[in-house]
Design brief:
The chain is of the alpha/beta class. The protein is 31% helix and 18% strand.
Length: 293
Amino acid sequence: MKYIDIHIHGGYGINFNTSSYEEIKTLLKKLYKRGIVGICPTLVGDNIENLQSRFELFKKLKNNRSIKESYIIGLHLEGTFLNPEKPGVQNSKVFLEPNINNFKKLADGYEDIIKIVTLAPELDKNDKLTDFLEKMNIKVHAGHTQADKKGKTSATTHHFNAMPQISHRGLNLALDSLFDNSIYCEIIADGIHLSKNMLKLFLKIKNNSKIIFISDALPAAHCKNEVIFCNKKINKNGKDKNGTLAGSVLFLDEITQLAINTGLISTSSAKKFVFDNPIAHLCLKGEEIGNLA
C-alpha cells in the first residue's frame, strides 16, 4: 500500500523545523521505504525569519528530489495562526493573528511551497485569510481552535484534538464537521489520541470519502532518546514533562495497519484514507500524482 501523510513533523530524531538538508534527505528515504510516497512536512510555530529559512530549505529539497525518497507535496503550516488558548505544546508567543497582512509578512514569495495552513477560524475575521489562501490553492484547516463552526475552512486538523469537546447542546465544530460532507477531517488513529469508541463513532458517521488518516508523527517516532520539539523535551511516548501529547510516535503505515489489524477499517477503506482522499483534497493532478510512485 502507498501512503500520503499530510501532517508529519519528522521522525527518527529528525525535526522538520530544525534539521539540516542532509538529515531531512535521510528521513525522506526512510519514509519512502515504509511506503510513504508523499508528505506535507508540517512546521510548528516559530519566528518569521526562522520559518522563512525553512521555506527556502524545503523549496531546495522539493526541487532536488532523488529517486526512492518521499515526494514533498508542499508544506503544512500548523503553528502560526492558532488560538493561544489551544496551543498544545507549541509556543503561543510566536502566534500571529490570522489575517492577509500577516500571511504576506511570513510567506510572500513562498506561496508555491505551502500547501496547507491550519488556523483558528474564529480569529479569521470574515474568513478573509481563508478566502485569500483558497484562491491560491492553499488548503485551510480548522485546528488549535475554540471555534464552534468551521467558517470557510475545507478540513479539520487532527479532529477532536485541540478543539472544543463534543457537546449535546449548541453549535460544535467537532460534531458538526462529522455530518458536513463539504469538509475533510484529519484523524490520528494511533489508539492514543482518541479512544477506540470515539474512533469507531467517527468512522461510522463521517463520509468515508472525506476521511484522511494522518500520523502527526514527531521527531520522537522511532527514536530511542528524548527529542527537542517546540523547544521542549519530548519523551519517547510523545509527551512533554507535563504529560501533554505533542503528537504521535508512529508513522502512517503503522497507524493504518493497526486500524486494519484491530478490525476498525478494511484494506479498501484504508487506501481511500491514506492515498485517494489526500489526493482529492489537495487537488493533485498529472505530474504531481506521477511523483507519488
